[in-house]
Give the backbone structure.
Amino acid sequence: MTGFLHGCVTAMITPFCASGVDFEGLGEMIEYQISSGVEALCILGTTGEPATMSEDERSKTISFAVEKAAGRVKIVAGTGSNSTAQAVENTRQAQALGADGALAITPYYNKCTQAGLLSYYGSICEAVEIPVIAYHVPSRTGVSMLPETAEELAKIPNFAGIKEASGDMALTLDILRRVRGNCDVYSGEDLLNFPILCAGGAGVFSVVSNVAPKAVCDLVKAVFERKLYMANKLADKLFPLTKALFSEVNPIPVKEALNLLGFRAGTPRSPLTPLEDAHRALLKEEMLKFGLEVKE
């Protein structure tokens, strides 16, 4: 299917406090995103640290986001697993909690075959009615989806697209070529948002838009309106900030960036650690150069 999402989707962080999830802090960030014009919010993607959250925390976070958004933007819930049965259960639960769609990462660690990917996504899509997007990020999972596999998945009625974060533009272009008209492709790599959009991407799942949502929305809009010179200038401006936001593994830097903006982002859960001082100084410098209002 095509047309489920068309624009900027923010890959939301999950703010933690001593008692668990800081829902007040999350609510403030959701309002910031909605007021900035994003198309949708991705809850419990990699940036949201679901791997370190309990089942109760995950379900309550999805429910909170759905209630807080109140239909103003779409909510996409991360539901993938290295177990097909668990991914199916997670996606069923997300649907029951009111999520508009699901983002399912490819199975990690097990390193399944292409046939395994077809079975995995087929089982998830068959179990629910909401749109399902595959998250292709082989650097984290150890599994690479072949373009031929993407072409087969695009034939599934509620398979809505692929969040493409392989970092391989040749592979991305082949996937786009094969699925065009049957499902959508979204950039999942902020540094490649501009070229993937220009090649026919339907939108972006962005980490950077946690911090600069309007700028990322403006970039997407400029490409869609074929104002490529303007889009290129925006991409150039975003580049140094994006590099700083990935100076350590995501979401370590973006959480600190949100703290610097005055949000209650907290710190990542172990085994992730707070941002190192040298990287924090670089991040703060790039945020100031970008024109963001740093609170300290």
In short: Residues 228-245 form the longest helix (18 residues).
